[in-house]
Amino acid sequence: MDRPELSRATQQIRVAPERITACLFDLDGVLTSTAAQHMAAWKQTFDAFLREREGEHFSPFTERDYLEHVDGRPRADGVRQFLASRGISLPEGSRDDPPASDTIHGLGNRKNETLQEIIRQRGVTPYPGSVRYLEAVRGAGLAIGVVTSSENGASVLEAAGLSRFVQARIDGLVITEQKLRGKPAPDAFLAGARALRVAPAEAAVFEDALAGVQAGRAGGFGWVVGVDRTHHADELRAHGADVVVSDLADLLVADR
């Protein structure tokens, strides 16, 4: 694991480089374990769609498909990207298409309906190490924002008990409302920095998705942290992570 040179202290614990005054966290897979639930919802949705379309030639949606085409992207972008990788084109439709519609938005809404059911069954759990890190960051006086492509950002934060830490939230609803480009474009992170009134060079980005790390690097952020939950540390570095950790608590370094 990489060990960054950290110098901002709280209770003799260093949490970020001295130049960093704000932290922008992705949600699913960084603060909460809901990335696995998103993956399960996408797989269930795409496998059913592909099985009906391809019959005996059905090729299932894989973890590699999730990481390369869907993870970290706005819902409709993920649908487009994955279907394009399989040579499939669907009508765009509209955001209020029913989940049964075979359109880009309909398929995305089908996934969200499946996700909501999975969350109802499993609940939302924050990573203990992420809670420790959030507490240390808040104790150090750094601003905290959440930047997520999910339209369920507010409900997931509330269910996980993390809303108390968050001073700004840029989620899928804000991305649509403000017509921001989705990750790997840096627009959402830049909006998060503006909401916290900090320059990108003074803010850190924490991401588990390749597209998210790429967005942090493209936005000129002062520190890009890759969170490796699925054993793809090398790819996170290749996409622009300054440091890669398996848990945010690994960033807590005692001052000596």
UniProtKB/TrEMBL annotation:
Cofactors that this protein relies on: Mg(2+)
KW Magnesium (keyword) present: yes
| The protein's enzyme class | isomerase
Pfam families reported in the protein's UniProt record: Hydrolase
Question: EC number(s) on record?
Answer: 5.4.2.6
Which parts of this chain are annotated as the region Disordered? 88-109
Q: Which UniProt keywords apply?
A: Carbohydrate metabolism, Hydrolase, Isomerase, Magnesium, Metal-binding, Phosphoprotein
Give the catalytic activity: beta-D-glucose 1-phosphate = beta-D-glucose 6-phosphate
What PANTHER family does UniProt report for this protein, alphabetically?
6-PHOSPHOGLUCONATE PHOSPHATASE, HEXITOL PHOSPHATASE B
Protein name (database record)? Beta-phosphoglucomutase
- Give the species this sequence originates from: Saccharopolyspora shandongensis
